[in-house]
Design brief:
This protein is an alpha+beta fold. The chain has a single domain, classed as 3-Layer(aba) Sandwich (GIY-YIG endonuclease). It is 34% helix and 19% strand. The protein contains 4 helices and 4 strands, in the order βαββαβαα. A 4-stranded antiparallel beta sheet has the order 1-4-2-3. The radius of gyration is 14 Å and the shape is globular. The chain starts with a strand and ends with a helix.
């Protein structure tokens, strides 16, 4: 279940479990600027973004596995079309995974670069 938006400044109040998961980052709290996933520690990944980026808000969802986190990240990338994602979802490079979404420009560009 997607939770948020929350202030990225207070990520420690909302994300405490060491768990895989996916997230959406936003500069204005209304639109997705970046979608990502963490294979093992969502809280640590979001803390990193809180300290080293200009994003101000986030949404998140815990997942039961790293593979599920990557799949959710990819789904959200297609659904929300974030402005700052320039390549395929986390963990897709170097695998046999292929996008099943017809006309996916992000995935087509990443294959062309390979």
């Amino acid at each position: 279940m997607l939770a948020g938006p929350f202030s990225l400044r207070y990520v420690h109040l909302f994300v405490g479990n060491q768990s895989p998961g996916a997230f959406i980052l936003s500069k204005n709290g209304r639109s997705a600027n970046f979608v990502g996933a963490s294979p093992d520690d969502l809280a640590e990944t979001l803390e990193h973004f809180a300290q080293h980026s200009n994003y101000r808000y986030f949404w998140f969802a815990y997942t039961s596995s790293a593979d599920e986190a990557v799949e959710l990240e990819h789904t959200w990338t297609h659904r929300y079309q974030p402005s700052d994602n320039t390549g395929p979802s986390s963990g897709i490079d170097g695998t046999d995974w292929h996008c099943t979404t017809t006309g996916c420009a992000t995935c087509a560009l990443s294959r062309a670069r390979s």
